[in-house]
Amino acid sequence: MKIAIVCYPTFGGSGVVATELGLALSRRGHEVHFVTYKQPVRLETISSHIRFHEVNVPEYPLFHYQPYELALSSKLVNVVKNYGIELLHVHYAIPHAYAGYMAKKMLEEEGINIPMVTTLHGTDITLVGNHPFYKPAVTFSINNSDLVTSVSDSLKEDTLKFFDIRKEIEVIPNFIDVSKFEKKAFTDCQRELMAHDDEKIITHVSNFRKVKRVEDVVKIFFEVQKNLKARLMMVGEGPERVVAEKLVRDLKIQDRVLFLGQSNEIDKILCFSDLFLLPSETESFGLAALEAMVQSVPVISSNTGGLPEVNVGGFSGYLHDVGDVDGMSRSAISILENQDKLMKFKKQAREAAEKFDINNIVPMYEELYQKALINA
Ligand code: GMT
Prior knowledge:
By secondary structure, this protein is α/β, with parallel strands linked by helices. The protein folds into 2 domains: 2-175 and 357-375, Glycogen Phosphorylase B (Rossmann fold, 3-Layer(aba) Sandwich); 178-354, Rossmann fold (3-Layer(aba) Sandwich). The protein has helices at 13-27, 68-83, 93-109, 123-126, 135-143, 153-162, 214-227, 241-250, 266-271, 287-293, 307-310, 325-336, 339-354, 358-375, and strands spanning 2-6, 31-36, 50-54, 87-91, 116-120, 147-150, 169-171, 200-205, 230-235, 257-261, 275-278, 299-302, 317-320. The strands form 2 sheets. A 7-stranded parallel β-sheet has the order 3-2-1-4-5-6-7, with helices on both faces. It has a 6-stranded parallel β-sheet with strand order 10-9-8-11-12-13, sandwiched between helices. Strand 9, helix 8 (241-250) and strand 10 (257-261) form a beta-alpha-beta unit. Helix 2 (68-83) packs across helix 3 (93-109), helix 3 crosses helix 5 (135-143) and helix 7 packs across helix 12 (325-336). The longest helix has 18 residues, at 358-375. The chain is elongated and about 70 Å long. The structure holds ligand GMT. The site of ligand GMT has 21 residues, from helix 1 and helix 4.
């Protein structure tokens, strides 16, 4: 099948999922065309089955805001026509579902009927899409997609709660390539560069937005390091990084906390981590938690949104109410201070991640595409 995937190319979870899906589909013989404004960060391999089409928005003095949706929908029309694309798969409703719908309509004028699948990822529904500025357009583009998926049951419920949706929403969870982590391929894990043998390594990875509650991460770590020797790795970039850095200085724990910025080596960092913290305000799925779990890193998270569908309480880690820093600190200490318990949770975290193996999930998308083509 020839599929065009529209996604954000940056470090966000939706872009990562879209890119990994495209790569997996190409390995299964499909031809995948990525259409976005920059080469997606995880799109390292270009092959005859993978193409990248850059969307350019020329500057013009009249434009206060660059009309990206217009450029994207025009690009989609050209890519569909020039490469014989059979299906559009747009990730993140804003503005991709809207632009995809416009492309679909323009193509219809030329006698080309192309089905569009929209995958909802989280903030496009819970934080941004729900805003009155966007809500009518988001509702319209979801209702006018041929098929709609969400990455968790919780996100499906939120979508039905916040929007007037007439469409069926199919839940297809995010996934991970378990085989990639089968053997400890990272012999160069180099834990010793980061911490001494008697220190535990705690990690947080995010885009450092308010919703991630990075101050809670620092506060939890502050409590943990009072009880045992530990270091905190803060990975990612975003507006809340300065806030977290200030708190670290105020608490005088600079020598134990490392801010690593955006990294292409997340696998390597997780490889030597003992515990992962994700105390988010809301999280439709929590791909970062799954990426930790597959590397046998237990997770302390909030119990919000789709997180309980990923992090199994008392098994792969612990979940607490949003903002319950004391509870999260106690759970973190209870895992880290007891080596047997840590080993047990590490094994269990990996076990819980296996349910989301890529080989279980990608065929669900293929089936959905077939359904879309039949109904088109
Ligand atoms: O976490 C973010 O703010 C980025 C956002 C995105 O679109 O990249 O992440 C959302 O989609 C991910 C992939 O499906 C999910 O794993 C994240 O939980 C979700 N983020 C939120 O719901 C806050």
